[in-house]
Specification:
Number of helices: 3
Structural class: alpha+beta
Strand content: 25-35%
Helix content: 10-25%
Shape: globular
Strand order of the largest sheet: 2-3-9-8-7
Number of strands: 9
Radius of gyration: 19 Å
Length: about 220
């Protein structure tokens, strides 16, 4: 299972995918990073493996230690930088995207989507939609140099790196229904608000995947 694959929108994923993953003549339609689990709509969340449980426990213990030791340092740093924070450049588009990046839809574990859910979907990786398939892939190792945050300049890959396909469905097994507008429910008032435009992939039984549209 991949260890610590790190993706974000700064990663030169198209170039990496073209060199090592795409088949001849295959073209990328869109790709979406996954830092946390997708949203599960009518299908169960993936089970845990022993390795994943042990990694999660170790992570919780480590983060607890970091929080205890670093809380005083953090307060000092915030006090020093307080004057500069108000004028800092947020970077990116300046608009926070709300709503899930990926929604896995279905009607129970016996639906097509439900049967495709495995513990590997708990990994960090990249959802890739091409003219031939929908897949979830991961890269072994770090792709950004800034510790903990996952930000910073993307790594330069001078040689092939391990890419693993954790989930894959070929186009004869689904139909692409085009773009749909999804709604999200707010946490406090429980109101429905627009979540954005998604690309909808549907299987024979009506279950499927909605991918947030990042690129036209």
């Amino acid at each position: 299972m991949p260890r610590n694959p790190r993706f974000d929108l700064q990663l030169d994923s198209p170039g990496l995918l073209e060199r090592q993953w795409l088949e001849p003549g295959e073209k990328t339609v869109d790709w979406i990073p996954q830092w946390k689990l997708p949203e599960f709509e009518g299908v169960p969340r993936p089970p845990w493996t022993i390795e994943q449980v042990l990694r999660r426990v170790a992570k919780v213990l480590w983060l607890t230690l970091v929080w205890v030791v670093g809380s005083v340092v953090l307060l000092i740093v915030l006090a020093i930088l307080a004057d500069g924070l108000s004028g800092a450049d947020a970077g990116g588009s300046g608009k926070k995207v709300k709503g899930p990046n990926v929604v896995l839809r279905g009607k129970g574990r016996d639906s097509v989507m439900g049967r495709l859910i495995t513990p590997e979907l708990r990994c960090r990786g990249l959802w890739v939609f091409t003219n031939r398939r929908i897949a979830f892939v991961a890269v072994d190792g770090r792709t950004h140099g800034k510790l903990l945050s996952g930000s910073g300049d993307p790594s330069t890959f001078t040689e092939p790196v391990p890419i693993r396909t954790l989930f894959e469905v070929r186009d004869p097994q689904y139909r692409y229904e085009g773009e749909v507008d999804r709604l999200r429910r707010t946490r406090i008032l429980r109101r429905f608000k627009p979540a954005g435009v998604y690309r909808r992939i549907t299987f024979a039984d009506g279950s499927g995947i909605d991918l947030r549209r990042y690129r036209k």
